[in-house]
Design brief:
The complex is a heterodimer of chains A (about 1100) and B (about 775). Chain A is built from 40 helices and 28 strands. Chain A is an alpha/beta fold. In chain A, a hairpin with an 8-residue loop joins strand 13 and strand 14. In chain B, about 30% of the residues lie in helices and about 20% in strands. The chains are: A alpha/beta (about 1100), B alpha+beta (about 775). Strand 14 of chain A pairs parallel with strand 11 of chain B, so a sheet runs across the interface. Chain B: This is Protein transport protein SEC23.
Chain lengths: ~1100, ~775
C-alpha cells in the first residue's frame, strides 16, 4: 500500500483516508478482479489516466511522490507490468475472461489482480490483461498503494487501500490499485476524489479503462452493481463493498464525501504525528498517515506520489490530517466476498500442480485429481522459491497446514481404502514414501522411480501393469493410489504396536465429584447426559454398534473406579487413595461394551450424583487421574480417549500438585512467559507415557477461579486432545454449550495411536511442526489421538535447490487406528510449483495460511521469549515480506507508496489481529487462564478457524430484507460499521454476540426478544426466545447455522449498545484500537508502511 | 508316687499348671545340676466350669513394685484387717469392702481351694468383638466358592453385635466399605507397595478429616458415624449386605499367564488389615483372619516370585542360603506381628494349598499374637471347613472359646526369678525384681502379651532359682508363684484370672530323693521339647539335637543308678523311666527333623507344639497307637514296628494326623467283602470300631487332624511307618524273624539302639 501522501502536508491520516477510499475502490477494482475485476481495474486505470493521466498510472506514481504516492505508483508499476494491464486491459471483464483463464492456472489471477497485481501482474498479467491501460493495471497493483500519490500517478491504480476517504484520490488511485484499493492513499483524497471516483468506480473494475474512472461503474458494472451504487453515492466508491477483494473498499461508500474524504480524515489520527515529521514525506505526507511513519505516507502517499497530484496533494494535504480512510484500506470482507463470488461456483479441481485454492471462507467443492484437497492441506505458498536464498530474501514462511482427518462435505467422497494385501502398502525402498500418483513407472512398468528420492524400485509382480503410450499405467484410474491425492491403505500387522492388531479403542469418563462440581450441578447434568450419549459413540462405516468400550472414574482427592460388568446387579465402586502411585484396581468390568452393560451403567450414572451429594471434599488431584486412565488403557492393551471433567486447581497432595501462581504483575515482563509454561515437568512426562499408550486426553474445565490451564492443558495438548473451558459454570446458563460440545466431542470420529510423517521431495524438508501432538524425534509426529478438527502446521526449509520442472512434492502419511480398531494409513499428496522469480511466490501465496502459521509460531514463541519480542518478530517478518515484495516485484513505484502484493494485502490487518490477540496483548479483563487456553486452542486450529478467530465475522441482521434467507454479507469488524439502528451478530468461532443498537425499531425488538422496548432487553441474555415470526426464525436459524459451522458451540451473548457488556463485545472489533493498546488497522498499516520503508532504505 | 501323680493331676485340673519339678531344689547351684530347669506348663484360661468368676476386683498388694493379688497363701490378720503379701511381705490394709471378714467369713480368694480365682472388672467401656476377614481371591473357582460359603456360615455364628470387616486381595488389595447402600464400595491398594500405618490410615480416610468450612451448613451436628464404621460394622447391621458381598466375590480377574503364579499381595493385605485396626481399635481385642490359597508373590512379604519355574524355597535352599525372599519377608511379617501384638490384635492364618504358602515367613504373625494357624490342601475340604467352624465353638455358657488382648504377669517369691516364656506371646518388656538375667525362651520380662488365646492355649514358663547355696531356706519354707492374666473375655468383659501356687523347697543334697520323686517327666519332656523347638527356630537342626542329647545324658547321669562303665547296670527310677523314650521320639519328630517336611510344614507343626497343652503335646512328641483285633478290646500298643501285625487294625494319632491302618489280612478280608456278609458281622464291627474312635478324636481336636485311612502296602501307610520305632528294619529283619511285625525301610536308629547308646554314655565317665 502506499500511503502516499500526496499531500505531504496533511498529516498522514488525512491523506490516508483519502487514500483508503481510493483503495477501496481499487479494492473493488481488485475484486472485480474476480469477475469484474478486470473491469474495475480498467476502471482504475481509467481513473488514473483520467486523473492524471500522467503517469501511466501506477507507474508514474511511484516515481512521483516521494515514494509515498507510490502507492499508486507501485501499483502503477505493478499493475502495469503485471497486471496493470490486467486491470486495464482485461480489466474487468477482461479479467474475467482472461483472468479466468489465468485463474485457471491459479487463482492468482484474481488474487493477483488485486494485490498481486503489482507484482504478479507482470507475470500474471493475465488478469487484466495488459490491454487496457497497462497503467491502470499497474495501478491496481499499485492498488495497494494507498497513497494519494497514486492519485496522480496512481490514480490509476488507486491502491485500493488507500485512504478511503480520499475517495477521490482513492478512487483514482485505487482504482488502479484495485487491489490496494484499500490503501488508497488517504491523501490521495483530493486527488483521490477525482480519481477516487473514478477509481471508485473502477472499483468496479468494470470500468475498464480509465474511463473507467467513474464510469467505471459501467465497467464496474459487471460485478459492481453494488459497486456502482456506492460509487455513485459515495461518489464513486461507495458501493464498492464488493469491490475488490482487496479492499475494503466497499466501505468506500461511506467515504462518500469523497470530496470530503479528505475531511474524513481529519480526525484521525494523531498518528499523523509521525507523518508530519517525515520530511521526506512531504509527498508522503499522506504517508503520514501512518500515523507516524512518515513512510507510510505511502499509504496516502500514493498521492503524494501524486506528486502528480502533487498539486492536488497539496490541497489534500491540508486535509492531510485526515487519516487513512478505513474504507480505502484492504478489506477482509471484500476479499472474502470476491473470492466467494469468483471461486465458489465451480469445483476446485486438484489436477494441476501449484494451484492456489479458493479461500477457506469460500464454499467450494473439490475434485481430487491427484493432489490432496485443500481441506487436508493448505500451503502458505503454492509456488516455492527454487533456492533457499530466494526464500530467505522473501521471508515468506513455507508451511503447510495439514488436517489429515478433515471432515468432508457430504458431496465429497472420503478417501478410498486400498488394500495391498499381506505385503502391505507399496513403498519406495529407500525413502519409504508410499505409492502415489507422482511415482514414475519406467521400463515398461517393471520398475518405478520414486518421486521423492529418485530411487528406482522394482514393481512387485502382483502389482505389475503395462504402461500406455504416455508412460502411464493402464490401470492408473482404477487405483486410487495412482490417481488421487488422498487415499488410505490398510495397514498390515507390521504397522501395529507389538506386531499385534490393535483392539478397539476405549473411552473413559473421569468425573470430578468434589464439592464444586456437585454444587454447580455439573455432575448431575453430566451423568444424565451420558446415559443417552453413550448410544452415539463413534462407529465406523455402517457398523451397527460402536466398537468403543467405555469406563467410568470419579475422583476428588482420591479416585473411584467402577466395575460395570454386565453380570453385576449393581455397579461396584473401587476407591484408590494411593494417588502417589496410581494404578488401576480392576481389569475385568472396567471397560465394557455399552449395550451389554446398559443396565449397570444406567444404574451407576443414576447413583453417582446421589453418592456424592453430601460431599465436602474440595480438594482434587489431576495427574493421577490421567495416570489412572492411561494405566487402564495399558492394562486393556488398547488405545483410547479420556474425557476429564475437572473443576479446580489440583492442590491435594499428589503428583502433579499445583499451586496458585497467577500473577498479573508478570505481564509485560521477561517473566511473562512463565505464565504459559507448565508449573512442573510432571505433566510432560505423563503426556509422554500417554502418547506411548495411545491415550488421548480431552479436558473439560469448569473453573471458578484460577486453575492453571497452562499446566493442566499440557497433557491434552501433547496427546492430541482438546481442552474446553467453561468459566463459572452454571447449569442454567452453560448447559447448552457444554452438552453440545460434549456430544460433539464424544461422537466425533477419532484416529488413535497415530504417527504422522511428512515426506518431501529432495530440496526441501519439514523442519518444524506446530499443533497438538508429541514428537520424540525430529520427523515423526506422534498423536495419541487425532480428530477431524485437529491440524498440524508444518514448516519447510530448503536443504537444496529445487527444480522448476519437477516442482516440490509433499506426502503426508498418517498411520492410525480407526475407531473400530482397524489400523490404517492415510496418505495425502500435494505437488507444488517452484519458481525462480519472487513474483511467482508472491502471486501464489495464501494469507490465511500464512497467518495460521505466524500465529502458531508466535504462540509457541511466548513460551520462550518475552511477548514483546514475539510481537516485534512478527512485525519485522511481515515488514520484510512486504518489503521484499516491494523491492523486487513492485519496483517502479515511489518509496512512499505502500504496495502490497495482491495475495497478501490482508496480511497487515490479519497480523494486527494476531498481535492484538489476548495472548500477545492481554487486556485487563483477560485472565491468565484465558490466555493459556486460547494459546493452546490456536495451536491446533486450521486455517478457517484462525481466520475467523482473529478476524471475527460481523453480520448485520437487519440490513437486508427479512425475506432474504441467505447469510447477510459481513461488515468489517469496526465500531464505525455499527449503526445504532441495527442488530449485528459477531462470531469468532468461540464467541457469539448479538449486538443491539440503541435505536433499533421497536418492531424488531418485539419480534426478536418478545419485549416491547430496547430497555427491556436483558443484557447478557444467552438464549433468544422462540417466537413465531420471520425475523426471529431467521436470526435463530442463522445462529444455528453459524454454530453448526464451528467445532465448538458458541454461547450467545446479547449485548446492548452502551451497556457495560459492550466493552467485551468491542474487544472483538479488531479493526479498532483496542483498550489494551492494540493498534487500529489504520494505525497498524501506517506503522507497517514505515517499517517497510525503513527496510527499503 | 501315686500321691505325686494325683497331686500333679489335681493341680493341673485346678490351676492349669504342671511343673517339671514339684519339689524345688533350694539353691541356684543345685537347681542347675538338675539339668531340667524348674519350669511349668501353664494353661492360663483352662476351662473351669466349676469356677464362677467373682464380680469384684482383686485386692492388690500396695507395694508399687509388687502388686500381687491377695491369695490363700497370704497371712491374714483378721482382727487388724491386715494381710501380708506372701511375695514381698508387705503388710496391707484390707479395703473398706472387706470390713466384715473373719475366719469364718472369708472372701473366696482366701479359701485354699481357690488358688485360682477369676475376677470380672466392671469398669471401663466394653468393646465388641472384632473380626476382620482378609481373603485371598487368587483361588480356584471351587476353592473360592467353598471359602465363601465358610465365611458366610461364620457370619451366622458371630454374636450380632460383633464387628466385622472384609479385606480381599489378589494382585490388588481391596478394603470393603460395609456401610454403604446401593453401590458396593471398596478401597483399593496396590499390592506391591509397602505403606506405613499412617499412609494406610490416610488413604482409608481414618484420620480426622480437616473439617471443611461450610458456610452453607454451619455447624450442622451431622451424625458423624465413627469413622471406622465404614469398614467395620456390627454384624446385625450389615449381615445381608456382607453376605451378598461375599457371594459376589470374584476370583482375582487379572490374567495369569502360562507359567506364572497369580500375583498375590498377602503382605500388603495383612499390613493394611493391621493398619486399619491399629487406626480404629487400638488396644481392643480383635481377630484378623487371613485366608490364603498360595504364597505371597509380590510386594513386601513376597515369598516367591511369580515364575512357576522357580519353586518356592525348600529347607535345602534355606540351608544353602538360597531363599532370596525369606529374610525380607520374615522381617515384614515380624514387623506386622509386633504391631498387631502391641495393639492386642491377633492374626489367624488359614492356608489351604497343595504347595507351600509361606507359613515359614508368616508364622510369627500367629506365633506372636496367639492366632491360629491352619494348614490344609484346599478350602473345599472338611478339614478346613470343620476346623474353621470350630474356631467359633462355644463353651457351656454360650461364650466363644476365645479371649483377646491378654497380659500374663508372673510374680515369684524372692528365691525365684522368671527366665522366660515359650508360647504364643510377646514380651511386654516389664523389668522387675523377679526378672532373671538369664533368658529361656522369651525372657527379660515378667509380663507377656497374648493377643488371642483359648482355653487350651498353653505356655511354658521357665524359672531360675536364685537362692544362694549358703542361704538355706528354713524348713517347711515354700516358694510361691502367682500368675495374673488380664484379658478380654469373649463376652466382652475384662477379666483377671489369678493363680497362686506354692511348692516346697528341698535341699538337693540331703533330699534328692524327694526332688527326684516329684519329677514330672511328662511336663519335663514337654518343657524340654519346647526349649528344643524354640532353639530350632534359630539354630541348626543338628546343634539342637546335640543339645537335647547332652541334656538327656546329663539327666541320666544325675538321676540314673548305675555302676560306672557298666551300661548294663543302668537303671532309672519310675519317675524318669519314660523320659528317654520321649526324647527318642522327639528327636524323630517333625519339630526337630526337617527332612521330608517343607519349611511351611515345620512351621505349622512347631506353631501348634508351642501352644497346645501337655496331653496334646505329648501326643505330638510320641504319637499314640491303638490296636484293634478279634483278640480283645482295643488296646494301646507300643509305637513300634513290631505292633504292625497282619490281623490287626491300627489307629495312630499323631495330633496332626489320624491314621487307620488295616493289617495285611484284614485288608484282604475287607477286599473280599466279608464285612458285607451277615455271618461276618463281627468283622464289620471290627472295621467300624477304629472309625468311631477316630471320629471322636476328630471332633474334639483343633485343628482338625488329617484323616488317613490306609492298609498294608498302601502308599499312605508311610504316615504310620515313619512314626513307629524302627525296631525292625531291612538291616535286622532276619535277626528278628518275620512274623512279629513289619520291617521299616530306614537307616534311623531304633529305640533299642538309642537306649543302648544312652546307657553307654551315661555310665561313661568321659563326659
Amino acid at each position: 500500500m502506499n500511503l502516499n501522501q500526496s499531500a505531504p502536508p496533511v498529516p498522514p491520516f488525512g491523506q490516508p483516508q483519502p487514500a483508503y477510499l481510493g483503495h477501496h475502490q481499487s479494492s473493488y477494482g481488485g475484486q472485480p478482479g474476480s469477475t469484474t475485476a478486470p473491469t474495475s481495474y480498467g476502471a482504475y486505470n481509467g481513473p488514473v489516466p483520467g486523473y492524471q493521466q500522467t503517469p501511466p498510472p501506477g507507474v508514474s506514481r511511484a516515481p512521483p511522490s516521494s515514494g509515498a504516492p507510490p502507492a499508486s505508483t507501485a501499483q502503477g508499476p505493478c499493475g502495469q507490468t503485471a497486471y496493470g494491464q490486467f486491470g486495464q486491459g482485461d480489466v474487468q471483464n477482461g479479467p474475467s475472461s482472461t483472468v479466468q483463464m489465468q485463474r485457471l492456472p491459479g487463482y492468482q489471477p484474481f488474487g493477483s489482480a488485486v494485490l498481486a497485481p503489482v507484482v504478479s501482474q507482470p507475470a500474471v498479467l493475465q488478469p487484466y490483461g495488459p490491454p487496457p491501460t497497462s497503467a491502470q493495471v499497474t495501478a491496481q497493483l499499485a492498488g495497494m498503494q494507498i497513497s494519494g500519490a497514486v492519485a496522480p500517478a496512481s490514480p490509476p491504480s488507486g491502491l485500493g487501500y488507500g485512504p478511503p476517504t480520499s475517495l477521490a484520490s482513492a478512487s483514482g488511485s485505487f482504482p488502479n490499485s484495485g487491489l490496494y484499493g484499500s490503501y488508497p492513499q488517504g491523501q490521495a483524497p483530493p486527488l483521490g476524489q477525482a480519481q477516487g471516483h473514478p477509481g471508485a468506480q473502477p472499483p468496479q473494475r468494470s470500468v475498464p479503462p480509465q474511463a473507467s474512472s467513474f464510469t467505471p461503474p459501467a465497467s464496474g458494472g459487471p460485478r459492481m452493481p453494488s459497486m456502482t451504487g456506492p460509487l455513485l453515492p459515495g461518489q464513486s466508491f461507495g458501493g464498492p463493498p464488493v469491490s475488490q477483494p482487496n479492499h475494503v473498499s466497499s466501505p468506500a461508500p461511506q467515504v462518500l464525501p469523497p470530496g470530503t474524504q479528505m475531511t474524513g480524515p481529519p480526525g484521525p489520527p494523531p498518528p499523523p504525528m509521525h507523518s508530519s515529521q517525515q520530511p521526506g514525506y512531504q509527498l508522503q505526507q499522506n504517508g503520514s498517515y501512518g500515523p507516524t511513519r512518515g513512510p507510510q505516507s505511502n499509504y496516502g502517499s500514493p498521492y503524494p506520489g501524486a506528486a502528480a497530484f502533487g498539486s492536488q496533494p497539496g490541497p489534500p494535504q491540508p486535509l492531510p490530517p485526515k487519516r487513512l480512510d478505513p474504507d480505502a484500506i484492504p478489506s477482509p470482507i471484500q476479499v472474502i466476498e470476491d473470492d466467494r463470488n469468483n471461486r465458489g461456483s465451480e469445483p476446485f479441481v486438484t489436477g494441476v500442480r501449484g494451484q492456489v485454492p479458493p479461500l477457506v471462507t469460500t464454499n467450494f467443492l473439490v475434485k481430487d485429481q491427484g493432489n490432496a484437497s485443500p481441506r487436508y492441506i493448505r500451503c502458505t505458498s503454492y509456488n516455492i522459491p527454487c533456492t533457499s536464498d530466494m526464500a530467505k530474501q522473501a521471508q515468506v514462511p513455507l508451511a503447510a497446514v495439514i488436517k489429515p482427518l478433515a471432515r468432508l462435505p457430504p458431496e465429497e467422497a472420503s478417501p478410498y481404502v486400498v488394500d495391498h494385501g499381506e505385503s502391505g502398502p507399496l513403498r519406495c525402498n529407500r525413502c519409504k514414501a508410499y505409492m502415489c500418483p507422482f511415482m514414475q513407472f519406467v521400463e515398461g512398468g517393471r520398475r518405478f522411480q520414486c518421486c521423492f528420492c529418485s530411487c528406482i524400485n522394482d514393481v512387485p509382480p502382483q502389482y505389475f501393469q503395462h504402461l500406455d503410450h504416455t508412460g502411464k499405467r493402464v490401470d492408473a484410474y482404477d487405483r486410487p493410489e495412482l490417481s488421487l491425492g488422498s487415499y488410505e491403505f490398510l495397514a498390515t500387522v507390521d504397522y501395529c504396536k507389538n506386531n499385534k492388531f490393535p483392539s478397539p479403542p476405549a473411552f473413559i469418563f473421569m468425573i470430578d465429584v468434589s464439592y464444586n462440581a456437585i454444587r454447580s450441578g455439573l455432575v448431575r447434568l453430566l451423568c444424565e447426559e451420558l446415559k443417552s450419549l453413550l448410544d452415539f459413540l463413534p462407529r465406523e462405516g455402517g457398523a451397527e454398534e460402536s466398537a468403543v468400550r467405555v469406563g467410568f472414574v470419579t475422583y476428588n482427592k482420591v479416585l473411584h473406579f467402577y466395575n460395570v460388568k454386565s453380570s453385576l446387579a449393581q455397579p461396584q465402586m473401587m476407591v484408590v487413595s494411593d494417588v502417589g502411585d496410581m494404578f488401576v484396581p480392576l481389569l475385568d468390568g472396567f471397560l465394557v461394551n455399552v449395550n451389554e452393560s446398559q443396565a449397570v451403567i444406567t444404574s451407576l450414572l443414576d447413583q453417582i450424583p446421589e453418592m456424592f451429594a453430601d460431599t465436602r471434599e474440595t480438594e482434587t488431584v489431576f495427574a493421577p487421574v490421567i495416570q489412572a486412565g492411561m494405566e487402564a488403557l495399558k492394562a486393556a492393551e488398547c488405545a483410547g480417549k479420556l474425557f476429564l471433567f475437572h473443576t479446580s486447581l489440583p492442590i491435594a497432595e499428589a503428583p502433579g500438585k499445583l499451586k496458585n501462581r497467577d500473577d498479573r504483575k508478570l505481564i509485560n515482563t521477561d517473566k511473562e512467559k512463565t505464565l504459559f509454561q507448565p508449573q512442573t515437568g510432571a505433566y510432560q512426562t505423563l503426556a509422554k507415557e500417554c502418547v506411548a499408550q495411545g491415550c488421548c486426553v480431552d479436558l473439560f474445565l469448569f473453573p471458578n477461579q484460577y486453575v492453571d490451564v497452562a499446566t493442566l492443558s499440557v497433557v491434552p495438548q501433547l496427546t492430541g486432545g482438546s481442552v474446553y473451558k467453561y468459566a463459572c459454570f452454571q447449569v442454567e446458563n452453560d448447559q447448552e454449550r457444554f452438552l453440545s460440545d460434549l456430544r460433539r466431542d464424544v461422537q466425533k470420529v477419532v484416529g488413535f495411536d497415530a504417527v504422522m510423517r511428512v515426506r518431501t521431495s529432495t530440496g526441501i524438508r519439514a523442519v518444524d511442526f506446530f499443533g497438538a501432538f508429541y514428537m520424540s524425534n525430529t520427523t515423526d509426529v506422534e498423536l495419541a489421538g487425532l480428530d477431524g478438527d485437529k491440524t498440524v502446521t508444518v514448516e519447510f526449509k530448503h536443504d537444496d535447490r529445487l527444480n522448476e520442472e519437477s516442482g516440490a512434492l509433499l506426502q503426508c502419511a498418517l498411520l492410525y487406528t480407526s475407531c473400530a480398531g482397524q489400523r490404517r494409513l492415510r496418505i495425502h499428496n500435494l505437488a507444488l510449483n517452484c519458481c525462480t522469480q519472487l513474483a511467482d511466490l508472491y502471486r501464489n501465496c495464501e494469507t490465511d495460511t500464512l497467518i495460521n502459521y505466524m500465529a502458531k509460531f508466535a504462540y509457541r514463541g511466548v513460551l520462550n521469549s518475552p511477548v514483546k519480542t514475539v510481537r516485534d518478530t512478527l512485525i519485522t517478518q511481515c515488514a520484510q515480506i512486504l518489503a521484499c515484495y516491494r523491492k523486487n516485484c513492485a519496483s517502479p513505484s515511489s518509496a512512499g507508496q505502500l504496495i502490497l502484493p495482491e495475495c497478501m494485502k490482508l496480511l497487515p490487518v490479519y497480523l494486527n489481529c494476531v498481535l492484538k490477540s489476548d495472548v500477545l496483548q492481554p487486556g485487563a479483563e483477560v485472565t491468565t487462564d484465558d490466555r493459556a487456553y486460547v494459546r493452546q486452542l490456536v495451536t491446533s486450529m486450521d486455517v478457517a478457524e484462525t481466520n475467523v478467530f482473529f478476524y471475527p465475522r460481523l453480520l448485520p441482521l437487519t440490513k437486508s430484507p427479512i425475506e432474504n434467507t441467505t447469510e447477510p454479507p459481513a461488515v468489517r469488524a469496526s465500531d464505525e460499521r455499527l449503526s445504532n439502528g441495527d442488530i449485528y451478530l459477531l462470531e469468532n468461532g468461540l464467541n457469539l454476540f448479538l449486538w443491539v443498537g440503541a435505536s433499533v425499531q421497536q418492531g424488531v425488538v418485539q419480534s426478536l426478544f418478545g419485549v416491547s422496548s430496547f430497555s427491556q432487553i436483558t443484557s447478557g441474555l444467552s438464549v433468544l426466545p422462540v417466537l413465531d415470526n420471520l425475523l426471529s426464525k431467521k436470526v435463530r436459524g442463522l445462529i444455528d447455522s453459524l454454530r453448526a459451522q464451528r467445532s465448538r458451540y458458541m454461547k450467545l451473548i446479547v449485548v446492548k449498545q452502551e451497556d457495560k457488556l459492550e466493552t467485551l463485545f468491542k474487544h472483538f472489533l479488531v479493526e479498532d484500537k483496542s483498550l489494551s493498546g492494540g493498534a487500529s488497522y489504520v494505525d497498524f498499516l501506517c506503522h507497517m508502511h514505515k517499517e517497510i520503508r525503513q527496510l527499503l532504505s | 508316687m501315686a500321691t505325686y501323680l494325683e497331686f500333679i493331676q489335681q493341680n493341673e485340673e485346678r490351676d492349669g499348671v504342671r511343673f517339671s519339678w514339684n519339689v524345688w531344689p533350694s539353691s541356684r547351684l543345685e537347681a542347675t545340676r538338675m539339668v531340667v530347669p524348674l519350669a511349668c506348663i501353664l494353661t492360663p484360661l483352662k476351662e473351669r466350669p466349676d469356677l464362677p468368676p467373682v464380680q469384684y476386683e482383686p485386692v492388690l498388694c500396695s507395694r508399687p513394685t509388687c502388686k500381687a493379688i491377695l491369695n490363700p497363701l497370704c497371712q491374714v490378720d483378721y482382727r487388724a484387717k491386715l494381710w501380708a503379701c506372701n511375695f514381698c511381705f508387705q503388710r496391707n490394709q484390707f479395703p473398706p469392702a472387706y470390713a466384715g471378714i473373719s475366719e469364718v467369713n472369708q472372701p473366696a480368694e482366701l479359701m485354699p481351694q481357690f488358688s485360682t480365682v477369676e475376677y470380672v472388672i466392671q469398669r471401663g467401656a466394653q468393646s465388641p468383638l472384632i473380626f476382620l476377614y482378609v481373603v485371598d481371591t487368587c483361588l480356584e473357582e471351587d476353592d473360592l466358592q467353598a471359602l465363601k460359603e465358610s465365611l458366610q456360615m461364620s457370619l451366622s455364628l458371630l454374636p450380632p453385635d460383633a464387628m466385622v470387616g472384609l479385606i480381599t486381595f489378589g494382585r490388588m488389595v481391596q478394603v470393603h466399605e460395609l456401610s454403604c447402600e446401593g453401590i458396593s464400595k471398596s478401597y483399593v491398594f496396590r499390592g506391591t507397595k509397602d505403606l506405613t500405618a499412617k499412609q494406610i490410615q490416610d488413604m482409608l480416610g481414618l484420620t480426622k478429616p480437616a473439617m471443611p468450612v461450610h458456610p452453607a451448613h454451619p455447624a450442622q451436628p451431622q451424625e458423624h458415624p465413627s469413622i471406622s464404621s465404614r469398614f467395620l460394622q456390627p454384624i446385625h447391621k450389615i449381615d445381608m449386605n456382607l453376605t451378598d458381598l461375599l457371594g459376589e466375590l470374584q476370583r482375582d480377574p487379572w490374567p495369569v499367564p502360562q507359567g506364572k503364579r497369580p500375583l498375590r499381595s498377602t503382605g500388603v493385605a495383612l499390613s493394611i488389615a493391621v493398619g486399619l485396626l491399629e487406626g480404629t481399635f487400638p488396644n481392643t481385642g480383635a481377630r484378623i483372619m487371613l485366608f490364603v490359597g498360595g504364597p505371597p508373590t509380590q510386594g513386601p512379604g513376597m515369598v516367591v516370585g511369580d515364575e512357576l519355574k522357580v519353586p518356592i524355597r525348600s529347607w535345602h535352599d534355606i540351608e544353602k542360603d538360597n531363599a532370596r525372599f525369606m529374610k525380607k519377608a520374615t522381617k515384614h511379617y515380624e514387623m506386622l506381628a509386633n504391631r498387631a501384638a502391641a495393639n492386642g490384635h491377633c492374626v489367624d492364618i488359614y492356608a489351604c494349598a497343595l504347595d507351600q504358602t509361606g507359613l515359614l515367613e508368616m508364622k510369627c504373625c500367629t506365633n506372636l499374637t496367639g492366632g491360629h494357624m491352619v494348614m490344609g490342601d484346599s478350602f473345599n475340604t472338611s478339614l478346613f471347613k470343620q476346623t474353621f467352624q470350630r474356631i467359633f465353638s462355644k463353651d457351656f455358657n454360650g461364650n466363644f472359646r476365645m479371649a483377646f488382648g491378654a497380659t500374663l504377669e508372673v510374680k515369684t517369691s524372692r528365691e525365684l526369678k522368671v527366665a522366660g516364656a515359650i508360647g504364643p506371646c510377646v514380651s511386654l518388656n516389664v523389668k522387675g525384681p523377679c526378672v532373671s538375667e538369664n533368658e529361656l525362651g522369651v525372657g527379660g520380662t515378667s509380663q507377656w502379651k497374648i493377643c488371642g488365646l483359648d482355653p487350651t492355649s498353653t505356655l511354658g514358663i521357665y524359672f531360675e532359682v536364685v537362692n544362694q547355696h549358703n542361704a538355706p531356706i528354713p524348713q517347711g519354707g515354700r516358694g510361691a508363684i502367682q500368675f495374673v492374666t488380664h484379658y478380654q473375655h469373649s463376652s466382652t468383659q475384662r477379666r483377671i484370672r489369678a493363680t497362686t501356687i506354692a511348692r516346697n523347697w528341698a535341699d538337693a543334697q540331703s533330699q534328692l530323693k524327694h526332688i527326684e520323686a516329684a519329677f514330672d517327666q511328662e511336663a519335663a519332656a514337654v518343657l524340654m521339647a519346647r526349649l528344643g523347638v524354640f532353639r530350632a527356630e534359630s539354630e541348626e537342626g543338628p546343634d539342637v539335637l546335640r543339645w537335647l542329647d547332652r541334656q538327656l545324658i546329663r539327666l541320666c547321669q544325675k538321676f540314673g543308678q548305675y555302676t560306672k562303665e557298666d551300661p548294663s547296670s543302668f537303671r532309672l527310677s519310675d519317675s524318669f523311666s519314660l523320659y528317654p523314650q520321649f526324647m527318642f521320639h522327639l528327636r524323630r519328630s517333625p519339630f526337630l527333623q526337617v527332612f521330608n517336611n517343607s519349611p511351611d510344614e515345620s512351621s505349622y507343626y512347631r506353631h501348634h507344639f508351642a501352644r497346645q497343652d501337655l496331653t496334646q503335646s505329648l501326643i505330638m512328641i510320641q504319637p499314640i497307637l491303638y490296636s484293634y483285633s478279634f483278640h480283645g478290646p482295643p488296646e494301646p500298643v507300643l509305637l513300634d514296628s513290631s505292633s504292625i501285625l497282619a490281623d490287626r487294625i491300627l489307629l495312630m494319632d499323631t495330633f496332626f494326623q489320624i491314621v487307620i491302618y488295616l493289617g495285611e489280612t484284614i485288608a484282604q478280608w475287607q477286599k473280599a467283602g466279608y464285612q458285607d456278609m451277615p455271618e461276618y458281622e463281627n468283622f464289620k464291627h471290627l472295621l467300624q470300631a477304629p472309625l468311631d474312635d477316630a471320629q471322636e478324636i476328630l471332633h474334639a481336636r483343633f485343628p482338625m487332624p488329617r484323616y488317613v485311612s490306609t492298609e498294608h502296602g498302601g502308599s499312605q501307610a508311610r504316615f504310620l511307618l515313619s512314626k513307629v520305632n524302627p525296631s525292625q528294619t531291612h538291616n535286622n529283619l532276619y535277626a528278628w524273624g518275620q512274623e512279629t511285625g513289619a520291617p521299616i525301610l530306614t537307616d534311623d536308629v531304633s529305640l533299642q539302639v538309642f537306649m543302648d547308646h544312652l546307657k553307654k554314655l551315661a555310665v561313661s565317665s568321659a563326659c
